[in-house]
Design brief:
By secondary structure, the protein is α+β, with helices and mostly antiparallel strands. Helix content is 11%, strand content 22%.
Length: 304
């Protein structure tokens, strides 16, 4: 038998071969048109048949599995040891959330920041001032930072810069600010301010200066204090609008010139420009930091 019968199945096969080379998977010739495809000489001989031969089904012999041998006494003992009984632990008592308003029985210290997100208001310096005319505009949601944009979960506005994010006006309003709240901390006599033991920092240096950054958000510029008390010490008192404070004596690795050194408070950090008292390289910023032991090169690298 030589030749092939042109049927609807071949035409449907040809549609799937459009825009590509056509041919048979049993031989190598490839053409571009349907007429050339039909004129390809067959590569195999055999007897004529009116039906397609189905593929042979290969059956694999199944191995007979041996029946398991049950030993009741041993099996029950192992089952008891492998599944010990668990005692139910009673749930912990629910903690009552702190109220979202100030307790009238507590006094409000002057220049205390409102604890609601995005408000940024401070209590009056005079404790005898009335609170009847207060209006707190704040964000009840949480900050969201996603793919470079910044905003709040409670409103739709999104910005790119952090300074613009800090200036997004609140979307909710209450008649009074919340300066101290009414939680357990206030019952113990505390104003709710949290003292930080350390903050994250990094730095880079040149031949004449060290440029350092201490990362602390929302530092209150009017209440912050940065004093270059000695060539190797900086006294820091950094209160924030989030009722946190970083107060410490910052020990420097090398000596600086306090008269020419400077600082700048930004929205997310404190920048320090420390002028070196000598041209030696600093392997660390703080005197108590772990030193890497590597050689730090400043300035432009020389050519080999």
């Amino acid at each position: 038998m030589r030749g092939r019968k042109v049927s609807g199945s071949l035409k449907s096969l040809w549609k799937t071969l459009a825009n590509i080379f056509a041919g048979w998977n049993c031989c190598k010739p490839r053409v571009l048109t349907f007429d050339e495809f039909l004129s390809i000489a067959p590569c195999t001989t055999g007897k004529h048949s009116a039906v397609s031969k189905p593929p042979a089904v290969v059956t694999q012999p199944t191995a007979t599995e041996p029946e398991p041998v049950r030993i009741p006494a041993v099996q029950e003992e192992l089952s008891t040891k492998s599944h010990p009984t668990h005692q139910r632990v009673p749930p912990a008592p629910a903690v009552e959330p702190e109220s979202d308003s100030d307790d009238p029985s507590f006094s409000i210290p002057p220049n205390t920041a409102c604890r609601r997100r995005g408000c940024g208001a401070y209590s009056s310096p005079t404790t005898a001032s009335s609170r009847e005319e207060e209006k707190c505009i704040y964000h009840p949601g949480h900050p969201i930072f996603h793919e470079g944009t910044k905003g709040w979960t409670c409103c739709k506005k999104r910005v790119l810069e952090f300074d613009e994010f800090m200036r997004i006006e609140g979307c909710s309003e209450k008649s009074r600010h919340m300066y101290v709240g009414s939680g357990k901390k206030n019952e113990a006599g505390s104003t709710g301010e949290k003292n930080l033991e350390t903050v994250r920092h990094d730095y880079y240096q040149t031949d004449t200066a060290v440029h350092a950054s201490l990362y602390l958000k929302r530092i209150r510029k009017e209440a912050a204090s940065v004093v270059f008390s000695s060539p190797k010490t900086i006294d820091l008192d950094l209160p924030t609008a989030d009722n946190t404070r970083y107060k410490a004596s910052f020990p420097l690795y090398g000596s600086i010139d306090p008269t020419t050194s400077s600082f700048k408070i930004l929205g997310t950090k404190l920048d320090l420009d420390l002028i070196k008292d000598g041209g030696s390289s600093w392997p660390a910023l703080r005197a108590d930091d772990t030193r890497t032991g590597g050689i730090i090169q400043t300035g432009k690298a020389g050519r080999a």
